[in-house]
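stuck on this one:
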Amino acid sequence: MACRFLSGYRMCLAWDSVNRSQRLSRWLVSAVALGLTGCGWLASLPTTILDTTASPHLQFGNPSDAIADPRRADNYLLVGRDYALSYNASRGTANWVSWKLSKANLGSVNRQDDFRADDRLPAAWYHVDGNDYRGSGYDRGHLVPSADRTADEASNSSTFLMTNIIPQASKNNRETWRELEEYCRELVNRGYELYVIAGVYGGSKQIANQRVTVPSQTWKVVAALTPGQHPERVTADAIVFAVDVPNTNRISSDWRRYQVSIDTLEAKTQLDLFEVLPDAIEAMLESRIVEPPR
């Protein structure tokens, strides 16, 4: 751990890889763009650096360089015990949600079904609540599945915060997306630990009095590693795959039909997925489409 002294403030940062300094460089660019100086510069540092490096859910990176600054309302970072996300206040949904999934997260807790507003958002913003999708024709679809967090009631309940919910076409939510979620948990039961990033993009239709945008696409990227394997040590034979699923009822229930390369997905979303991987490995894994094991 390296300790830095800035204007009398003692800031301790965990530099566990070269990628941490790369993230600091990106943050400094953001700080300049936001005009952060003096106390504002210092106040932004703990959230920007410490949250992203300490969270097990961001070990593959922060795809949009989100920060917890209310001035970044369309890329606002929320980091919790059970997942991390970038919230988009203009859309009323997350841009992406990232989480680690292992056997420790799976248990026998019942589904809590307590859909509710997320009070972690700045008070001045509109807080989408559990009734805002009523009569819209769309399901309240999870990004982090309820069934991925069944070790305890609090974890399961956290998946029902509306920042983790999107307006999802029923066939997508109940068939295609559900089958992919079940497959991911099957990989965990086979002995893998998963790092998952899921999100949305596109769409012009709005619900909830124009406060929530219905996405045209739902996507997910999965890396299945052996227990204890660090992202920086991922090899070219790792199980890594991505899907990009239209958010309509006119789709196949077979999620494998919607596999894409991560490069393709990055071009559509303008995100930098799996940024912590060594460059050569990242280029190889992101350019290919390899069907995951059945």
